[in-house]
């Protein structure tokens, strides 16, 4: 293996390492979103179970206000791009559950890509080690 080939392979392995790290970060972010979505579903399900529920409304910077929510109230859902819609409890749950399914698909896809890249990275490292070992044996015999 020439020095140029070794450098090229090393560069490719570094790119794969970066990609694997990026996929790991995406996985972590998606897991966080999944937890938040599950908490939202749980909270929406709990609204109105006992008639009127007391909740904390976030005001920003870790500041909250107590409020009461009745079972008949609409739930406001952010649908992206700064837009929000009002939905009844069942429609809100349906929307949240569909979003969870989308997140699960994205998480599976990201995980599969990370695993494939990690396997390619390990294979590439082993191949590089093997080639470097063969190169050192051939050069030590020429001394």
Description:
The protein is α+β, with helices and mostly antiparallel strands and 143 residues long. Helix content is 67%, strand content 20%. The chain has two helices and four strands. The strands form two sheets. Strands 1-2 form a two-stranded antiparallel ribbon. The chain has a two-stranded antiparallel sheet with strand order 3-4. It is rod-shaped and about 80 Å long.
Physical arrangement of strands within the biggest beta sheet: 1-2
The end-to-end distance, rounded to whole angstroms, is 18 Å
Which regions are unreliable across 5 or more consecutive residues at pLDDT < 50? none
How many domain modules? 1
What is the CATH topology assignment? Helix Hairpins
* pLDDT averaged residue by residue: 88
Largest sheet: 2 strands, antiparallel
Number of helices: 2
**DSSP helix fraction:** 55-70%
The shape is rod-shaped
SSE arrangement:
Elements (H helix, E strand, L loop, with lengths): L2 H44 L5 E9 L2 E8 L4 E6 L2 E5 L1 H52 L3
Antiparallel strand pairs: 1-2, 3-4
Helix pairs in contact: 1-2
Quick summary:
With 143 residues, the chain is α+β, with helices and mostly antiparallel strands. It has 2 helices and 4 strands, in the order H-E-E-E-E-H.
């Amino acid at each position: 293996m020439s020095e140029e080939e070794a450098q090229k392979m090393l560069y490719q392995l570094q790119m794969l390492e970066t990609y694997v790290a990026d996929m790991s970060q995406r996985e972590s972010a998606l897991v966080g979103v999944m937890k938040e979505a599950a908490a939202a579903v749980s909270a929406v399900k709990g609204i109105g179970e006992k008639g009127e529920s007391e909740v904390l409304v976030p005001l920003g910077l870790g500041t909250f206000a107590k409020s009461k929510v009745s079972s008949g109230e609409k739930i406001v859902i952010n649908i992206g791009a700064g837009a929000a819609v009002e939905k009844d409890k069942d429609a809100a749950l349906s929307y949240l559950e569909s979003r969870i399914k989308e997140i699960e698909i994205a998480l599976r896809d990201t995980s599969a890509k990370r695993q494939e890249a990690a396997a390619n990275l390990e294979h590439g490292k082993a191949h590089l080690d093997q080639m470097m070992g063969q190169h050192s044996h051939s050069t030590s015999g020429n001394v």
